Amino acid sequence: MTAVPALIRVEDLYAPPTRSRAVLSPDGTRIAYLAPWHGRLNVFLRDVDSDWSAPDLEDGSGTLAARRITAEVRRNIDRFFWSVDGRHLLFQQDIDGDENWHLLRVDPARPERPAVDLTPYEGVRLLGAQLAPDRPGTAFVQLNKRRADLIDFFELDLMSGDLTPVAENSGDVISWLRVPGRVLAFTIEEGGEHVLSERTGGETRTIARFPQSDILLGVVPAVPTADGMGLWIGSARGSDLTRVARLDVETGEETEVDSHPVFDLDTPRPEADPRFASSLILHPATGDLLGVRYLGDRQDIHALEPHFAEILPLLAELSDGDLSHVSTDTTGQRWVVEFTHDRDPGVTWFYDHASGKARRLFRPFPHLDPEQLAPVTPVTLTARDGLPLPGHLTLPVSLEPRNLPTVLLVHGGPWYRDSWGYDPEVQLLANRGYAVLQVDFRGSTGYGKAHVEAGIGEFAGRMHDDLIDALDWAIDRGLTDPDRVAIYGSSYGGYAALVGAAFTPDRFAAAISYTGMSDLVDLVEGVVPFARRAVENSYLRHIGDPEIPEQRADMLARSPISRVEDITAPVLLIHGANDVRVHRRNSDRVAEALRDRGREVEYLLNEAEGHWFSNPESNIELYRRLEGFLAKHLGGRSSEAS
């Protein structure tokens, strides 16, 4: 075996990227991107032809090619975009993880001017900003400004900030969409059927209905077609797999546009997480559908427009990773593209189709050596009832893959999935000497409706059995030392970790719950007001309805808080005090109960974070604590001991 790689510092994995998320301006002359300033990711701007080897940080000389155009010092920016005409850059921001997103505007031509908050309403959440090619100076926004539990629809003037009501929620609308000349609304009827309708002058016209079995979280994606007469949607109508369809907004007729024989359209993951590119690749000016993404072990992109079909293979040649975020100018000649990779993430290129020339702009993490990072390998195993379970296995570099301490890393959601790519916590764990096992248990998305629906009613049941079956798979192959296994995850994964510690205490030497729910009744009853109607097909169908006594009792029985006395392994709890998805009391109560019983428990509560930690110092503290906890109980390496 070759030499074991040196310890990678937590700071090197969780410091902000030097640059990331580059987006080309509509005219193809400038690139906006994120870079750190005072420890926070801010938006910077460069000319396409500038010297990208030059630093971004301002030195007062006024000669640097990069111009910083935002000045956020409290929290990272992670969502920003150009206005249709390129006149403005827009970004979203919340306060300490409260998820009450605001929409802010900056002027690329006047970077010295401060950002303007276009939705300066305390306690109000921006739930979507739709930019329409036919109205370049405005955005159509959804806000719960009038009532916390109702989402209304507005047209926002990007220059003046004037907010014009477009449609008022009568009490049943869960989301709005605008196509030229029409206002569309999505609602949910009793029984979970989703309905798309047109709202005009107080009148409602039903366009299409979507059965409960086809819709989990909503109709996603749902994007207006270039002609304004339809929507590009993700559809599983009459199929186990989700494909792309065109929905006629006049007739409601649904026509298949493209599909994959094996893979689902890559959704709803990108709609929930801005790190991932949308499943639809659209022309920024016209809205034409250029291509669509499907995801299995690796990504498969189908080009649907002749010019993009010519461009796509040329872009793919730039990296052995998967094509991620893509932006182009209005002519489709200039492109900025980012790549997903398991060991060299986010490498970003500029390609000029007119000249045929390409150049690499940056690597977000130039200090990380891909050769020192661990390959991520897709695997498939079989559950005890025969259900195929896709997953990923990451083994430490240069260690014999025998009897390794192992972390069973469980994704959140649970309506989410793991995928091939770079994850700093996976690399941290592998670098510390742990095998990392991830499994897309039943209930995970991305593998068809049947895989999702196999999770109905199976919280702390067969969903947990799948994790145990995956662990046994690794043990049977000699990869994992059964006496040195930790279970860890965030959100649903944190719940799964507590279930593992409470329901199968003999299988785990340690458990780590990061913003995990310990009480399923509290989770469902704590849904923020405007989202309560939207959880019928997810929370209520899959977990239970706490208003029904028998289901409430079952939910409590499947809640780790009801089985705390069975937890014997050491537990690390991590929570953001401002979490609005899983209230901190879910961790508070477990910590108190374990301490009362004299059990070993550590609790990291961060007062400046929400459901996911954002700021670098928060993540550095979190993962230092995590590596020390695992080293103590599983025997892996730790930078604290070096």
TrEMBL record:
Domain called Peptidase S9 prolyl oligopeptidase catalytic: residue spans: 420-636
Keywords: Aminopeptidase, Hydrolase, Protease
Coiled coil residues, start to end: none
InterPro entries on file: 6-blade_b-propeller_TolB-like, AB_hydrolase_fold, Peptidase_S9_cat
One GO molecular-function entry: aminopeptidase activity
A Gene Ontology biological process term: proteolysis
Keyword Hydrolase found: yes
Protein name: Dipeptidyl aminopeptidase/acylaminoacyl peptidase
Annotated source species: Murinocardiopsis flavida
